[in-house]
Amino acid sequence: MDPIRVLIVEDDPMVMEINAQFVSRFSGFVLAGKAFSGKEAITLINQVNPNLVLLDYFLPDTNGLSLLQTIRNKHYPLDVILLTANRDPNHIQEIFRSGVVDYIVKPFRFDRFQSALEQYRSTLKRFKENRPFEQADLDGLKGAKHKSSVLEEHLPKGLNDRTLQQILQFLKGQAEPLSSEDVAIGTGLARVTVRRYLDYLEKKGEIVMEIQYGSVGRPMNKYRL
């Protein structure tokens, strides 16, 4: 398979370089261009024909949703992953309706970025095989988990399914990432108990841990699905 050509659209030069370095660490991907505005992005799309656009929401001359809709209206044969600090549920819903393969919230961990690119590479490879899809293939493309789900695995000693499901169900209803203390208060469980389950879920890749820095004090770990 030919290298996947990536265009990064990001107005912050420092973030641009970080994302470019991330892309360079993956075999099978090549950085095709850098755009710092929506207008520049459209120009580069026409020039370099990317397979994948890594798109920020906040741009100096437009926003990620408007640019995504322009890309779709022009029928460019490319895919888009949002890399943004935008957490507005209405914007996110419209973005998914406009067609993106993933949405990654800043600040994000490298392993989350890695997972997104690896999943995209696997998906693209599957499409290029040009053979009929089975349900298992489609489930794999959407990241669906069935028999291999963490809830059906043998849990470590001291953990049980009921408490695990209680924590997961609570997290599903949250729009923002939460600390272990927030989860403990919301579920009525002891904080030390919640922390054990969150650590387990994070290691299994069922939830994502984000490190948030305040103006004072130590950084705080927060969790989301």
TrEMBL record:
It holds the Pfam family Response_reg. Coiled coil: none annotated. Gene3D superfamilies: 3.40.50.2300, Winged helix-like DNA-binding domain superfamily/Winged helix DNA-binding domain. GO terms for cellular component: cytoplasm. InterPro entries: 2C-system_Tx_regulators (IPR051271), CheY-like_superfamily (IPR011006), DpiA-like_HTH (IPR048714), Sig_transdc_resp-reg_cit/mal (IPR024187), Sig_transdc_resp-reg_receiver (IPR001789), WH-like_DNA-bd_sf (IPR036388), WH_DNA-bd_sf (IPR036390). It is found in: Cytoplasm. This is Two-component system response regulator.
